[in-house]
Amino acid sequence: MKENIGPKNALYPLPVTLVGSLVDGKPNYITIAHVGIVDLAHLSVSMAKVHYSNAGIRENGEFSVNLPPTGLVKETDYCGLVSGRKADKGSLFEAFYGVLENAPMIRECPVNMACRLEQTLDMPKHDVFIGEIVETFCDTEVLAGGNVDFSRVHPILFAMYDRSYFELGGRFADAWSCGKELMGK
Amino acid sequence: MKENIGPKNALYPLPVTLVGSLVDGKPNYITIAHVGIVDLAHLSVSMAKVHYSNAGIRENGEFSVNLPPTGLVKETDYCGLVSGRKADKGSLFEAFYGVLENAPMIRECPVNMACRLEQTLDMPKHDVFIGEIVETFCDTEVLAGGNVDFSRVHPILFAMYDRSYFELGGRFADAWSCGKELMGK
């Protein structure tokens, strides 16, 4: 039976990311799971306007998106609990940089993307930063045939209403393939 | 060791959705995993401009986002393989409607959102439809305490480069909580 639960956003689970930026010249990281793929060259991160990082991203026009593994769940959750105004979150991780000098990436995260801010959606309480992905770095251990094997990344997946962090389960089917047997029916 | 793999979008896994629309007055469904949360009231679905559904969404200003369970992986994959121009995908599922008469939802999917098109990002090859969530429906079996328990939804999670469908794993930590022990250190 269907139940109408009102206009609730139920587009979960989404991958938890740590968004890196320079604020007043220092690396800062914030936990963001309200993210999305815009197209293969662009992604979105939705950040409440109250956050400390937003001014740095606006000012520098650059940020990073890092995928923390389940083993870093405490550090990841902490970055969502404490503001960069009050704590130096930059010292939690080892930063590294690619060509974008204002997009600190996190060495301890197995997947890192350096982004150039392309546009910002001005929502009532959120800046939705749309970034062009300029460079992607991975730990060699998570690569298989030149691509990221997400079963090796151990990403943290998030659902909001019951405040859950989930692990990724097993690969169980092939995309653009398993539905072929229904063709022509 | 870090490897630079070029500007690859690695914001995976993302939940696979079936986007419902009316095209020429008939329900059509397409498989879209390049999605995102914009804020709690809005979501995004990125749909290549070549798709049959896009004109219907533009014309009617309404669409649905449905979360198929792993048990429907073949039907879900099929909806991404075959165009509505060539096949009647509307007959695959039982449609139902809320207040939005142009947003057919899929009864067989445990979570359904009816959306009003609020704006469209015009990317080079994609329409990124940003929808206001007007109504959300769920199977009573996936609710726990009035919220969606995603472990009961059995969503399909997608990663592109190796064409993977993954299951959701177990809930392993509490958000806005497990990081508290690092506070004050």
Descriptive terms for the model:
185 residues; three-stranded antiparallel β-sheet; 46% strand; 3 helices; homodimer
Structure write-up:
- The structure is a homodimer of 185-residue chains.
- With 185 residues, chain A is mainly β.
- Chain A has 3 helices and 15 strands.
- Chain A has helices at residues 53-60, 73-81, 150-153, and strands at residues 2-4, 14-15, 17-23, 26-32, 35-39, 42-48, 62-67, 95-96, 105-106, 111-122, 126-139, 143-144, 147-148, 157-159, 164-174.
- In chain A, the strands form 4 sheets. Chain A has a 7-stranded antiparallel sheet.
- Chain A starts with a strand and ends in an 11-residue tail after the last strand.
- Chains A and B meet through β1, β2, β5, β6 and α2 of A and β1, β2, β5, β6 and α2 of B.
Record the SSE blueprint:
Two copies of one chain form a homodimer.
Chain A: E1 2-4, E2 14-15, E3 17-23, E4 26-32, E5 35-39, E6 42-48, H1 53-60, E7 62-67, H2 73-81, E8 95-96, E9 105-106, E10 111-122, E11 126-139, E12 143-144, E13 147-148, H3 150-153, E14 157-159, E15 164-174
Antiparallel strand pairs in A: 2-14, 3-4, 3-7, 5-6, 6-11, 7-10, 8-9, 10-11, 12-13, 14-15
What percent of the residues of chain A sit in helical stretches (DSSP H or I)? 10-25%
Beta strands of chain A, count:
15
What is the beta-strand fraction of chain A?
over 45%
User: What is the chain-wise order of helices and strands of chain A?
Assistant: EEEEEEHEHEEEEEEHEE
The main pleated sheet of chain A reads as: 7 strands, antiparallel
Oligomeric status:
homodimer
Most residues in contact: chain pair: A-B, 102 and 102 residues
Unreliable stretches covering 5 or more consecutive residues of chain A: none
Q: Please count the helical segments of chain A.
A: 3
Question: So what's the overall shape of chain A?
Answer: globular
